[in-house]
Amino acid sequence: MTTPTFTPRVFSGIQPxxxxxxxNYLGAIKRFVQMQxxxxxxxxxxxxxxxxxxxxxxxxxxxxTRELAAGFIASGISPEKSILIxxxxxxxxxxxxxxxxxxARMGWMQRMTQFKDKAGKNTxxxxxGLFGYPALMAADILVYHxxxxxxxxxxxxxxxxxxxxxxxxxxxxxxxxxxxxxxxxEGAATRVMSLRDGSKKMSKSDPSDASRINMTDDADTxxxxxxxxxTDPDALPSETExxxxxxEARNLVNIYAALSDQSVDxxxxxxxxxxxxxxxxxxxxxxxxxxxxxxxxxxRLMSDPAEIDRILARGAEQAREITVPILEKTYEIMGMVR
Length: 338
Ligand code: TYM
What we know:
The protein has 13 helices and 5 strands. The protein is mainly α. Ligand 1 binds next to strand 1, helix 1 and helix 7. One of its GO terms (cellular component) is cytosol.
């Protein structure tokens, strides 16, 4: 349970390390918009300092950060209602990140499955930042005293670590200063899978572009990728249990449910018994109807990058009204002379 003394605040972030995918949209951004519309104080972040844990070409990073901001806004994040920032313009993230590097234990970090996946056999050659990444992520959240963090399923372990860091800091200094944050992992599409392989997560780093839907894909591309998505030969079941052991079928039904704001049961009520030959065109039509307006609006926003930069500069000012006092108090608790 969240400590009752903390007022609710939502924080989440996405790496500007390449195009946005349907996974990012359904697992994260769609939920960000809902939480904003619920009237909660919300802070959403392009985590550029996280992106550089692997090499980023400077021109690409600049472009991808602006494009991600355009994606947030085109999806419904309003700079009037939410604070929209890129991480490096709010220096308190990195400052608290260092403090948390001194709180987190090596053993905790070594258990992170995402580090193991990303480093693979290459553990001696990846950056130190890639290993320490979850301490910075905890700082992103806790420098706002955020209580709720909407994310996809793959971030669950990092959020558990965030709770461990807050608990240890509070315990070591005998304070109740950092909230114990709640992950918000909800909806039909908390783990969108590759269109080519139902056992792999949909990811911007997959070498096959056909494995994912990019938020910048045009209508024809979206329809073609869905038509070619891997499936099995059976008809769709009428009950959820019928999707067990059918990862590709389950994935397409989950995507349909998330895009149409229905539960999987409701979708199967509607489409149970259909072959993929008739379900895929329905899904393609729905995906195009939901995603095309977003990609059109992204392109429009990208024609005026100076306006995006102004929004991010204003966001950083608003953010620092929250982060500066929290960092100051953290230093004071720790005995740093001010
Ligand atoms: P990132 O940039 O990999 O992904 C951003 C968000 O999209 C979700 N997501 C998915 N959800 C469902 N299905 C998928 N296939 C899929 N792929 C991605 C992710 O779960 C995430 O919510 N470490 C984070 C960024 C971060 C952050 C934070 C998040 C940095 N600091 C503080 C929350 C709070 C990351 O790499 O996400």
